């Protein structure tokens, strides 16, 4: 058993739904990302089912995986979107996503991005500073539009996650302190082209406990109460994303428990609840498939040198993140401990340390839980074309992104005049 329902061994061979990963490698080459449509759909439906009866909107955080096919799948399931750039907005629109269900997060929105989003009539801007609010008001005024706004409040809560992805402490660059937010809401009349519609927070990513969500929720409810007592009409409460997944031995709350707790904590308010999940929708729905180019045995260590690298999956190098790595064919005899590394010229280029398995040169490995922040954080470092992306739907496979070519990579570059 792999522990991931749609990614399972049949006999000695690892499958995605009904397709052997070996066959995907033969047909499409490696490295490639492989996703399960069923896993994506089930994750989304777990959220929806858990919210049943509560006025809510799930805004998938596009940054986790922005492939148009995945956005389109979620759009068809009824999802809204959380975007952080004009580029992500364009993807959502192209994927058939509803701008009326789209919120725009991020600390540094440009005027051009604000214009795009105002033109598209998005649901809400999650504004992170007074300076941004002033700019948005100006941009909206020039366009003769009213910008719907939530202030992103920094609730000063410790998310107890990796410091690089913890965002809700007062020393982080994100959000506005609750007290400052209250006074900005009160000065609403100063902003002719802003309509305050919501209240927003997001405290971090890969949270494995409910506590910090609940603490942040409490603070948001207090602020909501203050604003309402001052006569402000707030339509929605956006509690951000952040629910963790199991990469190794973590035991994060289930989607059901997480949503049930949010609903229980906000039972007494009438506002619509928004959440912005990314990782918990896509993380365990995708893997990175890679082939062993060489095995290298030294007196100190054994290396499995594979054809995927830190440019394909940056999380191990950037956060020292753990991804389980499974052999696609599991019938070899000689068990050894390997350093799974890529071809990039840095010692930080690894996918896993001290992994024990029996493999031979040419074998395939599956890097698990790579559906979130895998492809979307990939780069062309070392002039490596980015991997292909494949979607499996039962016994069918679809290329949802062609492997990049080197010609595409260098097409927009030019030499200086002689
Ligand atoms: N909303 C906002 C405003 C965010 O900044 C994020 C993620 C999310 C929602 C979605 O959070 P999720 O449900 O995925 O935890 N690259 C890192 C994760 C960065 C998360 C950034 N913000 C990683 O690979 O772990």
Tell me about this structure.
By secondary structure, the chain is α/β, with parallel strands linked by helices. It has 2 domains: 7-36 and 283-410, Lyase, Ornithine Decarboxylase, Chain A, domain 1, CATH 2.40.37; 105-277, Alanine racemase (TIM Barrel, Alpha-Beta Barrel). It has helices at residues 21-28, 37-51, 68-77, 86-94, 111-119, 130-143, 178-186, 211-229, 255-265, 279-282, 315-319, 406-410, and strands at 7-10, 13-16, 19-20, 32-36, 56-61, 80-83, 102-104, 124-127, 147-154, 176-177, 194-200, 236-238, 272-275, 286-297, 302-306, 325-327, 336-341, 350-357, 364-367, 388-393, 396-401. Strand 17 and strand 18 form a beta hairpin. Helix 7 (178-186) runs parallel beside helix 8 (211-229). The model has no long low-confidence stretch (mean pLDDT 96). Bound molecules: ligand LLP. Residues 61, 64, 82, 105, 165, 202, 205-206, 240-243, 276-280, 315, 319, 373, 377 line the site of ligand LLP.
């Amino acid at each position: 058993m792999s522990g991931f329902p749609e990614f399972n061994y049949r006999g000695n061979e690892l499958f995605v739904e009904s397709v052997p990963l070996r066959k995907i490698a033969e047909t499409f080459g490696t490295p490639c990302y492989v996703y399960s449509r069923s896993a994506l759909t089930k994750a989304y439906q777990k959220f929806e089912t858990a919210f049943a009866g509560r006025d809510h909107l799930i805004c998938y955080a596009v940054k986790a995986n922005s492939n148009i096919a995945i956005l389109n799948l979620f759009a068809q399931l009824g999802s809204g979107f959380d975007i952080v750039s004009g580029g992500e907005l364009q993807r959502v629109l192209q994927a058939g996503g509803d701008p009326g269900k789209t919120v725009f997060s991020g600390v540094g929105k440009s005027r051009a991005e604000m214009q795009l989003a105002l033109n598209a009539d998005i649901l809400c801007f999650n504004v992170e500073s007074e300076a941004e609010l002033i700019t948005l008001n100006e941009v909206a005024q020039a366009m003769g539009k009213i910008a719907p706004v939530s202030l992103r409040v920094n609730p000063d809560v410790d998310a107890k996650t990796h410091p690089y992805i913890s965002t809700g402490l007062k020393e982080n660059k994100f959000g506005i302190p609750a007290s400052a937010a209250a006074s900005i809401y009160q000065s609403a009349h100063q902003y002719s082209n802003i309509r305050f519609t919501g209240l927003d927070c997001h405290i971090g990513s890969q949270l494995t406990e409910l506590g910090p969500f609940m603490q942040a929720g409490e603070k948001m409810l207090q602020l909501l109460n203050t604003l309402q007592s001052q006569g402000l009409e707030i339509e929605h409460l956006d509690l951000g994303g952040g629910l963790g997944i199991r990469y190794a031995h973590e035991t994060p709350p289930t989607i059901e428990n997480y949503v049930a707790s949010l609903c229980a904590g906000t039972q007494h308010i009438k506002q619509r609840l928004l959440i912005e999940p990314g990782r918990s929708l896509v993380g365990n729905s995708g893997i990175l498939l890679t082939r062993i180019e060489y095995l290298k045995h030294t007196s100190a260590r054994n290396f499995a040198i594979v054809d995927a690298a830190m440019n394909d999956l940056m999380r191990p190098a950037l956060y020292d993140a753990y991804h389980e790595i499974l052999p696609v064919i599991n019938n070899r005899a000689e068990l050894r401990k390997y350093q799974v590394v890529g071809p990039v010229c840095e010692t930080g280029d690894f996918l896993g340390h001290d992994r024990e398995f029996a493999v031979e040169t040419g074998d395939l490995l599956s890097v698990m839980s790579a559906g979130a922040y895998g492809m979307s954080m990939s780069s062309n470092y070392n002039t490596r074309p980015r991997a292909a992306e494949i979607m499996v739907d039962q016994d069918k496979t679809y290329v949802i992104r062609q492997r990049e070519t080197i010609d595409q990579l260098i097409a927009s570059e030019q030499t200086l005049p002689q």
